[in-house]
Write a structure and sequence with these properties.
28% strand; Uridine Diphospho-n-acetylenolpyruvylglucosamine Reductase, domain 1; Uridine Diphospho-n-acetylenolpyruvylglucosamine Reductase, domain 2; binds flavin-adenine dinucleotide; binds NADP nicotinamide-adenine-dinucleotide phosphate; 24% helix; Uridine Diphospho-n-acetylenolpyruvylglucosamine Reductase, domain 3; four-stranded mixed β-sheet
């Protein structure tokens, strides 16, 4: 077993925060993970599961055993009249999986192209973009329970998926290592292109025959034009969730702020664009030292180089306070803070 000690996590998180981990173990099979977990010397050691590190902010050195999931492999496990059941290892890069599915004609995740991170983290916050969430195609997952080292299968209904939410952020928090995920992908695509500027981009590309490949291409172009590339500027995507408020409160706000952006959701609440709220508190493009708020999308906090996790966190506190003071809405962080 190759366990690294006192290792910098800078290259393991897309914010590029330079903290150290007490131990780091990278594993490429569930057997290797179970072998490690059976070692009594790590029994009481705190553990932190890491995928691509694209939804994490480290604010301190990690006095834990970091379990870096590198389980690969993509496999078609069943084909039915309307679906393909496809299993992917938790360490597969999410975007590679999306491209693989598009090439094979497996439909359903094309709108989720270019989301950073790995397959294993995709159920954690029910990743979503451009009107699609993984709950739409999720079938089940396999995981290892950290305390008893047993392998379990967790089905969709147990995951309790919500908007950027799942059971893994609540009652199952820090209890499981997800080792693989099974997706139920469609033979017949259902195109989602009314969201954001997908349609405009398809028009610009002069695409008239829709395909899952064309949708992914449009999504990738929009994302590349708007979002900071973590390889160039450290970030973890949207730092905050879009708050959901009741429609009477939204209407009150609309009287005072006619331009406010909100969308009705399934539960008759209004999802307010947090980026708009933050921008309208004057934060867009803000920079203090190396911590800042992205100049094209205020929802994304950035590390221009050497910001510490605490500097980014403090900026997020100030943003939450100013949004609360101006709009009476308390933003919740989407990024996992350690
Ligand atoms: P990590 O950051 O490594 O981990 C995230 C959390 O999941 C941690 O709590 C970790 O402990 C846990 N975890 C990770 N892997 C496992 C596992 N195998 N088993 C158990 N627990 C695990 N998100 C969206 O939903 N939609 C977007 O459109 C989107 N766009 C983004 C754009 C940019 C530029 C960036 C930087 C991020 C974006 N994100 C988006 C956020 C992020 O990419 C996703 O949340 C992604 O799923 C995180 O994957 P990861 O492997 O990097 O997880
Ligand atoms: P955008 O298109 O500028 O839209 C702003 C917000 O309005 C988004 O957050 C989106 O909510 C919502 N929205 C837009 N059109 C909508 C519609 N037709 N119906 C309901 N809600 C609508 O957003 P963006 O920043 O460029 O991001 C585009 C997509 O990528 C979004 O889906 C966003 O969630 C996703 N993304 C996520 C992250 C992350 O880290 N979580 C980072 C970058 C981009 P939703 O966020 O609920 O979709």
């Amino acid at each position: 077993m190759n366990i690294q000690t006192n290792i910098s996590l800078k290259q393991y998180n897309t914010f590029g925060i330079d903290v150290s981990a007490k131990y780091l173990f990278a594993f490429s099979s569930s057997d290797d993970l179970q072998y490690l977990l059976s070692d009594q010397s790590f029994k009481n050691q705190e553990k932190l599961v890491l995928g691509g590190g694209s939804n994490i902010l480290f604010t301190r050195n990690i006095n834990a055993l970091v379990l870096k999931n590198e389980i690969g492999g993509i496999e078609l496990i069943e084909e039915t009249e309307n679906h393909f059941l496809v299993k992917a290892g938790a360490g597969v890069v999410w975007h590679d999986f999306v491209i693989y599915c598009i090439q094979k004609g497996y439909a359903g995740i094309e709108n989720l192209a270019l989301i950073p991170g790995n397959v294993g983290a995709s159920p954690m916050q029910n990743i979503g973009a451009y009107g699609v969430e993984i709950k739409d195609v999720f079938h089940s997952l396999e995981a290892i329970h950290l305390s008893d080292n047993k392998k379990v299968t967790i089905t969709k209904s147990e995951c309790d998926f919500g908007y950027r939410e799942s059971v893994f952020k609540h009652s199952y928090k820090n209890q499981f290592v997800i080792t693989s995920v099974v997706f139920q992908l469609n033979k017949k695509p259902e195109f989602h292109f009314s969201y954001g500027s997908i349609k405009e981009e398809l028009d610009r590309l002069q695409i008239h025959d829709l395909s899952i490949n064309a949708i992914a291409q449009a999504v990738m172009n929009i994302r590349r034009s708007k979002l900071p590339d973590p390889k160039i500027i450290g970030n973890a995507g949207s730092f905050f969730k879009n708050p959901e408020i009741d429609s009477s409160f939204f209407n009150e706000l609309k009287n005072s702020f006619p331009q406010i952006v909100g969308y009705a959701n399934d539960s008759e609440m209004i999802k307010v664009a947090a980026g708009w709220l933050i921008e309208n508190c004057g934060w867009k493009g803000y920079r203090a030292g190396d911590a800042g708020c992205h100049d094209k999308q205020a929802l994304v906090l950035v590390n221009f180089g050497k910001a510490s996790g605490n500097e980014i966190f403090d900026l997020s506190e100030k943003i939450i306070e100013s949004v609360k003071n101006k709009f009476g809405i308390e933003l919740q962080r989407e990024v996992n803070i350690y």
